[in-house]
Amino acid sequence: MLATEVPFTLPRGVLDSSGALHRDGVMRLATARDEIEPLRDPAVRANGAYLSVLLLARTVVRVGGIEPVTPEILENMFAVDFDHLQRLYERLNASGEVVGTVTCPGCGDAFDVDLSAIEDGGLGG
């Protein structure tokens, strides 16, 4: 079965209006509409770099208790977190791999894995 949503952990996290930190979230696979609709937006026409913000706003389902994830939330993310989401988006939607971030229970380090390998029994399963 194809996983259409993938969990992730942001390197730094998003601060909400009350100062709470949110790091864990979910991104879904993009549809053709997700990639077409933002091209009509005047902000993208004025600045092509804004396309990434709108693509992520359409595909990041939630970050912690923040739902929906709006362009304004993404604009205020730490650069390292925004970059992390951009790279995850590219990996999820550019190939057949389904990548997620997991945390080692022993050392606490976070790293990306191909989640399709888990379904196929490729990670010791």
How would you describe the overall organization of this protein?
The protein has one domain. The longest helix has 16 residues, at 79-94. The protein is an alpha+beta fold. The chain has 6 helices and 5 strands. A hairpin with a 6-residue loop joins strand 4 and strand 5. 36% of the residues lie in helices and 26% in strands. Mean pLDDT is 87; it is low at 119-125. The strands form 2 sheets. It has a 3-stranded antiparallel sheet with strand order 1-2-3. The two termini are 16 Å apart. It is globular, with a radius of gyration of 15 Å.
Helical percent range? Answer: 25-40%
Discrete helix count:
6
The whole-angstrom Rg is 15 Å
Low-confidence stretches: 119-125
> How would you sum up the global shape?
globular
Please provide the ordered H/E string of secondary-structure elements. Answer: EEHHHEHHEEH
Structural class: alpha+beta
What is the number of E strands? 5
Mean pLDDT across the residues is: 87
Protein name: Phage tail assembly protein
